[in-house]
């Protein structure tokens, strides 16, 4: 499942890159700059807290107008319990000109964390039922302009995800009553650092 998710996100990133470059070529050939511009932000990163750490992979695609950006994001979050965050991403750049060489920004994300636990997340003496939880992320960053309407994006943020599940001791006797059903909720706050590649800036 983990490999499938990674390849799906890589394929999405590649398709969005081709689409963004085609749009940039069309805009350049016409000699105009559109008020609304497609933008794709694809990032890798690391998130840490006092008890655990893990890598992040995200793809955010949306529309930028002047200094504002809004998009939809999806990713893989490996901190403590593996999951797929799906979220809305809002960004405010300091400068309206998308060709500014250095452009600071702030961002805020909110959405749902879809639990996709790995085998290492489970105790094999028990059965589990995972539920989806809240996902948020907010922080600041800097875009460094590159040629051909591209940029590097470095960001530092504070993120949160909740993971909820029901834990039941394994009983090989199907007719036996279920006992000691535990309801568990983890609230994981993390500091995250991400490096992204931006198309259609």
From TrEMBL:
Residues in the signal sequence: 1-22
Keyword Signal: yes
Annotated protein name in UniProt: Outer membrane protein beta-barrel domain-containing protein
Organism in which the protein naturally occurs: Candidatus Pseudobacter hemicellulosilyticus
This protein's UniProt keywords: Signal
């Amino acid at each position: 499942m983990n490999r499938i998710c990674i390849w799906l996100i890589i394929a999405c990133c590649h398709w969005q890159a081709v689409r963004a470059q085609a749009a940039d070529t069309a805009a350049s050939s016409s000699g105009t700059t559109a008020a609304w511009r497609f933008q794709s932000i694809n990032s890798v990163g690391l998130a840490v807290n006092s008890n655990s750490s893990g890598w992040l992979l995200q793809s955010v695609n949306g529309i930028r107008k002047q200094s504002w950006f809004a998009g939809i994001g999806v990713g893989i979050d490996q901190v403590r319990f593996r999951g797929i965050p799906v979220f809305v991403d809002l960004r405010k750049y300091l400068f309206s000109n998308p060709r500014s060489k250095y452009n600071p920004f702030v961002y805020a994300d909110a959405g749902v964390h879809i639990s996709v636990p790995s085998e290492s997340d489970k105790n094999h003496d028990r059965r589990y039922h995972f539920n989806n939880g809240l996902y948020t992320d907010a922080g600041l960053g800097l875009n460094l302009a590159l040629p051909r309407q591209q940029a590097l994006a470095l960001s530092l943020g504070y993120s949160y995800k909740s993971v909820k599940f029901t834990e039941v001791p394994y009983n090989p006797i199907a007719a036996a009553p279920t006992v000691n059903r535990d309801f568990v909720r983890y609230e994981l706050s993390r500091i995250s650092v991400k490096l992204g590649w931006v198309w259609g800036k």
